[in-house]
Design a protein that fits this description.
There is one protein chain. By secondary structure, the protein is of the alpha+beta class. The protein is built from eleven helices and 14 strands. The protein has helices at about 10-25, 35-45, 75-80, 100-115, 155-160, 180-195, 210-220, 235-245, 275-280, 290-295, 320-330, and strands at about 5-10, 55-60, 65-75, 85-95, 120, 135, 165-175, 200, 255, 265-270, 300-310, 335-340, 345, 360-370. The mean pLDDT is about 90.
């Protein structure tokens, strides 16, 4: 097959770069399209670009049709934080053709060598808030909107190209309608009283610069030991607060404050919107927004989006408080299932799910290769 590699630089080229997966996965029932406008902003206006550099390429056939794409990200904060010299790759999609995939990844490798990097790894975004990890199991399932989907041939080709596993993340599906035993509720109330903790009203988040800074501290400390984690900057946290805090649902959110009203831990869940995003097809208008808003109010599955605790509160049972609080809120509702966010397979936090009925849902991998 004849194809060319072209760098993506103009707004019109970026829009085509974004829309390529919609064509690649046309007819696939599991693929969840991102919103084109949100993706354009991520690639061109993300606060992470204050310190990251990004390059994008597409592969085109002899009829000038896109047959693959990739982005390369140089994140100096990540390299400094982890004492490594790595270039990231993400937004990686391609037809079932080994040569196309290899040529795209070679562009990432060439740029990485120019920057003095020693390894390349991905799929990754700027940070852990972006979608990351190539699916290696669970292809029959639909991912949450903040997770990637890919065909089974992707990991097969990665293996053929000599890439190795850096880390695997697993996701599980839980029963969310089984309730919480009274004994667990009593234990959690004792924990709140013992440590002088309280569950805050999420309305307190609106316009509170102190709580936003406290969330930043709690988030950065809670995830500091996670593979490929990058601490969020002030501007990144401000964007998270602006985009998401006003949309949090009371019954799906538990933010725990200590005696000095600092955020000790948080459990943030959101309605699973995958079906409405499928119907929207990447567009908010004319009907995409209406479908998303309807599912935001009428849902039977939730996504466990962010669960974490400040370092001083880890290993003290505080995670049980937000799990129990949210599960109790759901006891008399219509929610049937919950899907966890991707977590490293060796993460001890999974022990908390043992009291729920659960099943494996998806497994995804970050690949790595020396340059």
């Amino acid at each position: 097959m004849e194809f060319k590699i072209k760098e993506v630089t103009t707004p019109s080229q970026i829009k085509k770069f974004i829309k390529f997966p919609h064509k690649l996965y046309k007819g696939n029932n599991q693929y969840v399209p991102v919103l084109n406008g949100d993706e354009f902003e991520t690639l061109t206006k993300s606060p992470a670009l204050e310190y990251c550099k990004i390059k994008m390429w597409v592969a085109t056939d002899n009829k000038n049709r896109i047959v693959g794409r990739v982005a390369a990200i140089w994140n100096p904060h990540s390299n400094e934080y982890h004492f490594e010299k790595r270039v990231r790759f993400g937004w990686f999609d391609f037809i079932d053709n080994r040569e196309v995939a290899a040529a795209l990844l070679e562009m990432v490798a060439l740029w990485g060598r120019e920057l003095g990097m020693e390894q390349m790894h991905g799929p990754l975004g700027y940070n852990t808030l972006n979608r990351q990890g190539m699916m290696i199991e669970g292809f029959e399932n639909t991912p949450p909107i903040n997770c990637l989907y890919n065909y089974p041939y992707y990991p097969q080709i990665m293996d053929e190209l000599g890439f190795e596993k850096q880390v695997d993340w697993v996701q599980i599906k839980l029963r969310a309608d089984e309730g919480v035993p009274d004994k667990i509720k009593r234990i959690n109330q004792m924990l709140l009283e013992k440590h002088n903790l309280r569950i805050m009203d999420i309305k307190e988040l609106k316009g509170s610069s102190k709580l936003i800074k406290s969330f930043q501290k709690s988030y950065n400390e809670g995830f500091k030991d996670i593979d490929n984690f990058v601490p969020l900057t002030d501007s990144e946290v401000e964007k998270v607060a602006k985009d998401y805090f006003s949309k949090l649902r009371k019954e799906l959110t538990c933010i725990i404050l200590d005696g000095e009203d600092n955020i000790a831990a948080f459990g943030i869940c959101v309605p699973n919107l995958s079906n409405s995003f499928k119907k929207a097809g990447g567009k908010l208008f004319p009907f995409g927004l209406l479908r998303i808003l309807w599912e935001f109010r009428n849902y039977t599955t939730i996504d466990l989006l962010l669960l974490g605790a400040s370092s001083e509160w880890q290993n003290k049972g505080i995670s049980s408080i937000y799990h129990t609080h949210i599960a109790t809120n759901l006891e008399r509702g219509t929610i049937k299932y919950a899907i966890t966010n991707p977590q490293a397979e060796n993460n001890s936090a999974y022990k908390v799910w043992e009291r729920y009925g659960y099943e494996p849902y998806m497994k995804r991998r970050c690949y790595i290769k020396n340059l």
